[in-house]
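Take a sample.
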Amino acid sequence: MRIGTGCEAIALWGILFLAACDQQATEPSAKAPDPVATMMAADTMAIGGRSETYVVVTPQGGWKITKTYLQTFVCPTSAPPGEARDVNDNNWIVGWGAVLSRTGGCDRHAFLIRPGQRIRDITNRAYDAEAVAVNNRGTVVGVADGRAFRWTLTTGLQYLPLLAGIPGVPTAIDEGDNIVGTVATASGRRAVLWPAAGGVIDLAPMTDARAVSYGEVYGAAPLGPSGDHAVLRQSDGTLIDLGTQGTGAVATGWITGAIVGNYVDVAGGEHAVFMNRYGQPWTPIPTIGGLLNQANAANAEYRGNSGAVVGWSEIFDPYLGNDREAFFWSTAAGSLRLNIAPPDACGGFDSEARAVNRGGLVVGGEADCTVIGRKPVSWKVSPLP
């Protein structure tokens, strides 16, 4: 049956799939720019914008998922198109895309996509760059040619301080503009904090930092003989040991009443779990099936502070064998598979959800047989009326 203009409903694995809606992003007609001029421009010509919508019914009710192929830079070689890494509550999306280089190849540049705006290259003089996080103030953090940076509309790109002369890799930023990440030192990897007030702080004994909230840092530290322990570092410096399983664990975020993280079993497989700062047993995060899964991010404020978790789960595909598929979990929706391939395509496989905002907009990457590597996508998760 036909749903609206230009959309056709298809039954797929018990899911109503509204295929080929073709909500193409429009660009003003203009003469094709010079490749070098495009690379150096602040706002770059982009491709993408097609959306697909499908409906999933869970025990908690019906949910609409709209997948959008995000704008990305134009590079006519076979380089991977890019990936979205984070989204704030204003629907600002950051990540990286492949840009035509001066030598005819492709460089990686960090991008920012704002609602109603063309994609913006925020590292247009770099050769290898990626934006990894953005907060609600609009502060973006990432890496450009091996140096950690922060970027805003008013200040532009600013490099972050070095730890003992060694550059770091940022992983997250909170609403107070505190940034966390890691630094590879001669004695091993160290977690670091770049406070909003300036400078850089070594968070030893932490070796990993995945999330930060007003100075509280979630990550990992080698606190015992059985590998890394998941830890929470409070704003006063107190380190809370959340425990470990298998060969090591890491905390990656939080929702109301629980800390989100992963552990690695003795065979090297990853598992997403809810942790607790009070020493209670961990519980598996309900994903979309599969023996292996990973929770990349959580948002405690999703739908009235009920919380949401996103990541990937390795599931069986009848055509491809085991592959990673992006998942979304919340107490309101249960577990949702985000990436549903239309029956007339070669399939969306190796998808991963990287972040979710309080409005249910999820961002990440997807690969299929039409590209080498992933392309940036978003999934909007909404309850049916």
User: Anything to note?
Assistant: DSSP finds two helices and 33 strands in the chain.
